[in-house]
Amino acid sequence: MGYRALVCVVGPLFLILFTIVPYSTALISSPESNPPYPKAISDLKESIVKGFGFQSEEVKISGFDVRDALVGHAVSYEFDLEIDNKVLPFRLLEDVNRWEYVDLPIFHVEQPVGSRDENGVVPVKNKKKSNDVLPVLAPFQLAGPMELWIQDANNMRLSLPYDVDAGVLKKVILADGAVVTVKGARSVSLRHPIDLSLPLNQSSNEFASGLLSLAEQLRRASSSDQETPLLSLRIVGPTSLASTSQSPDNKLKLKRLAPGLVELSSMSKTRSSLSTVDGAMTIVLTPREFTTMWPVTSINGSNANLLGFEKLLTSVLGSKAQEKGSFKVLKADVGAQTYMKIGFGVEKKLKEADLEGLRYPEWRTKPETMRMHFEVLAKVDGEKVIPENVMRVDPIPIEDTVAQNVIAGNVTMSIPMEDTFQPPPSPFTL
Question: What is the pTM (predicted TM-score) of this model?
Answer without folding.
Answer: 0.70
